[in-house]
Amino acid sequence: MEDIGCWMFMKKPFLAALMKCSNHGVGWDQLLVAAEQGHTKEMLRILRSDPELIFTADVVGETVVHVVARAGHALTITKLMQTFMRHHWMKVLLKKNVDGDTAIKHNHKEAAYRLGDRQEFAKDELNKDGISPWDLDKEAGYCSGVADIEMRLAMADIELDELYKVKWIEGTPIGVRGAFLKASANGVIKTKHIELELDRSGGNLLHIIAAKPGKVDILKLLVKFMNNSELASLPLERNKAGDTALHLALNKGRDEASALYLIEVAPKSAYLLNQDGVSPLHLAIELHYNDIVRRIFQLLPGTRIDSSIKKSLLRAKNASVVHAAVRSRNLGILERVMEELPGSIDSLNEEGWKPLSYAAYEGYLEEVHFFLNNFPDSARKCDRDGSFPIQKAVGAGHVHIVEEFISSCPLTIHDVDKRGRSILHIAVKYARPDVFSYLTKKKEVQKIFYLKDQEGKTFMDFATQLENRFKA
Prior knowledge:
InterPro entries: Ankyrin_rpt, Ankyrin_rpt-contain_sf. The chain is an all-alpha fold and about 475 residues long.
């Protein structure tokens, strides 16, 4: 049987087809069938019943928007964009497949134009070749060259140092809000711009100061004069975007000192999610602020947070903290996150992938090895699209990751996705010759040579179809 596999791989027409052909057309049952056919109403019906499907990606990282764009359904795109804007789904246009391509980068001029018209930032996204849709203007339908995208932030010119001049009254029961208003009435603080900022973005004074780098001393001054009620509530208050002051210290201020101080004041705030489903803990991990991450777990371990907070944290809209830890490529932080939040092993990112699948898809060997050794059961748990972690590695073409799976968990060889497709089916379908060559040389893989998918096809049937398509 090994000889059959090697012979097929070495057969020149098949090899040429396998290396040149990359079939991206996959789907999730009804939704992707509707997408391929441009049936907008049916797509919206399915998405209303399961909104998370909009961010779900297949084994090569493609979303339903890639499918619609590739099919060239410009009218469908226009109708979908209206719904996307209402449901805050526009960031799906920034999702990239394994080649780094967004949905805009396809050979359909009108479809690409309508996608780009709705999401300016998507036009600047680079794929793995360093090419953006702007660079493909003729192909994507942009004829006037690159337009400058200006971020007009109506930031108030706040003289925060004026706060130092406030004559605070020690032991006053009125707290920081009362003291601030009193100082304003006496003309000590210029409040016009501050009031404008608070009205526009919501939140409180901590939000304004935390968003400015290097203002930790002012934060300490404000906290010093908070009464007990304010101390318990203000650091946890959210602005209109759902951000706490700690979110802003990390995200906008990029101020590690201010962030550390706010964590000391209100450790619980580190776990609160904003409207994008991102917690300050998540931000600290992505920014590689290892001292902050360690301090968060010291002050309030993940095992001690409220069950409601833990549930929301593990089901974040954007990605769970363990996905952020994997993405940060810091094994020490990943180990600490999993120690504090072991339940996050089954959390999903926007694509509907669990942490092991994400690590396998990205080709992160150390992280895959960690999961397989410490959470071996995760190797045989499928993702939202019905495929398994090893299949993500095969689809992305990572031989070293596939080898790690087979070495650590040999039973993963037998796992098939919800359409009955084995790792050999996927290696052929997604044109991964290196993976295919490796698999067909493994004796244990011979046991799945004649496995059939739900359509009754073996991987060799896929290979024949691929070869015939290449000949045509």
